[in-house]
Amino acid sequence: MKSLVIASQKGGVGKTTLSLNLALSFARAGYRTALIDTDPQGAVGLSLSKSLTSRVGLADCIAGEAAVGDVLVSTRVEGFSILPVGTVSPAETQSFGTAMADGSRLRGVLDALASRFDLALVDTPCGFGGITAGALRACSHVVSPIQAEPIALRSVTQLLEMVKALGGQGQVAGVAGFVLSMLQTRDEASLQVARDVWEMFPRELLFDVSIPRDGVFLEATAAGVPVGLLRKPAPPVTHVFDLVASELARRLELSTARTVDGPQSLLD
Amino acid sequence: MAHNLSWIDPQTLRSLVAQTAYRRLEPEQAAPPSPARPVAVAPSTSDPPSVEPARTEPAPMPTVPPLRTAGSVRRATRPSLPDPDASRSVPDAPPVRASMLDPFAVAPGALEARLEQLMVWACTVTGLARVFIADDEGLLVASLNAGANAPDEAASVVELCTRGVPHDVGGSEAGSISMVGLERTHVVAWSTGSHGKTFIALSGTVEPSPEALSILCRALTDALR
Fold first, then answer.
1. How distant is the Cα of A87 from the closest Cα of chain B, in angstroms?
2. A-chain residues near B94 (CB < 8 A)
3. Measuring CA to CA, which of A191, B82, B106, B167 is 20 to 30 A from A258?
């Protein structure tokens, strides 16, 4: 099983949106996918269902008070499960971060999922505290959204510095790429950021598609669903996540998609 | 470059990237089966896994059949379903970013040579591996990595562009359309010159930039002069 952290030093850049919709794209592509929420605020749960935020979850597994199999939530999408963070009170946030920091407990959770999933996506809170550090230590790859706004670019080198520093201390996730997010194609400043990023970043680390700023994300959050499940047919932006997932599958060398590549008989 | 990245030292960034980027196994190092192209995103299914094996056959050389003469005009037969393997024999390359696009510099020479040059250039700029050129009758003029179904596809593409899209697009002297599915991208550009309306069609698994489509149309015009 490959494990992918979605991380960024800056908040509000679209980490949870990317995590949730990527997970759906991977699952629909035939990869058995687990989405793990490590944000004490329960960002994934808040995006989907209030009931997820009050469940027993990852925090209980990290504390040794629950088994992973007992807290995993299956979804209506085949092969797609969610491990909510559980209830982490503000007073417990620091101890949760400390418990996560060395990555060993999260690695134990990932090991418990390994036989059931092809991929684990780990959504993280903003910043590079113990939670994100632990996720970077425990997982095999990391992807970071870059908000297409000038100030957000500063977080890029900070992430790379963080990965480099953790790498000096032992195992760490390899940077699988950056995704431009919240791109406003009618805003010159936003476009300039995109041009600069395209110019400066190595092609192999920047995805060819960008996530636009689109009101459909708010609509999906209000409805408590990923955008791909908002309506039929799915909003066009869903295709962006499918493309990112497709490229990530190549970069992560995921080769176990349960898809049929070839003719499928229509009738028995 | 604007001020956005002026505070980032490119050398430092390159160094950090080199130290932190994931390591991709080379094809000969990767444990089989390893996909030769990005694993396509497809609807979920409960059937067992199947991954297309890597294909290592060398790309065929460009083939340019003789341009039609007045006596050779015929309409191609109605297209049949494309051969799935025909579109997968040559892997796509990543599309060139808009900021790195090299304009098509047409070399002096015969029309056949210019069209060959155009096809190679178009594949590089768009990242799409299959390409063919057709005239306004839907007859195949030249192809590169296009497979055995290229004649049928040429007829299909020309029919689509002349009859299947609104007249203010399809009827224009020059233009382009792009069709994207979950797995494939098809791009068609056309231009009208002394040889009549000529179409260049490319397909593959990557999505070229709008800028690439724009200069593709101009490049076709230049190649036909």
1. 32
2. 203, 208
3. B82
- Write the pLDDT tens digit of every residue in B5-56: 555 677 777 788 888 887 654 443 444 433 333 333 333 333 333 333 333 3
Predicted local confidence at residue A106, as pLDDT: 96
Residue A97 identity: G
Q: How far apart are CA A13 and CA A181, in angstroms?
A: 7
Mean pLDDT for the stretch of residues B114-139 = 89
**ipTM for this prediction:** 0.74
Tell me which residue of A74, A49, A71, A45 sits closest to A58, measured CA to CA. A71
A-chain residue closest to B40, CA distance:
A246
Which residues in B167-189 are b (16+ Cβ under 10 Å) and which e? eeebeeeebbbbeeebebbbbbb
Query: Best interface-test mutation with B: which of A21, A76, A80, A157 has the largest number of B CBs within 10 A?
Result: A157
Q: Domain coordinates of chain A in residue numbers?
A: 2-140+210-251
Q: Is the pLDDT of residue A58 over 90?
A: yes
Residue type, B143: S
Closest among A32, A252, A257, A80 to B49, alpha carbons compared:
A257
Query: In the structure encoding, which two tokens stand for residue A51, read together?
Result: 């009931």
Name the residue facing A250 among B13, B39, B49 (closest C-beta). B39
Mean pLDDT over all residues of chain B?
Answer: 68
Strands A141-147 and A73-74: unpaired
What is the distance between the alpha carbons of residues A78 and B43, in angstroms, rounded to a whole number?
11
- What does CATH list as the number for A2-140+210-251? 3.40.50.300
Instruction: Please give the C-alpha separations between residue A88 and each of A12, A62, A65, in angstroms, as whole numbers.
Output: 20, 12, 13
Give the chain B residue nearest A149 (alpha carbons): B4
Rounded Cα distance between A29 and B159, Å, is 33
State the Cα–Cα distance between residues A43 and A267, nearest whole angstrom: 43
B10 at A interface, C-beta within 8 A: yes
Quick: pLDDT tens for B148-176: 888 888 888 888 888 888 877 888 888 88
pLDDT (0 to 100) of residue B26: 44
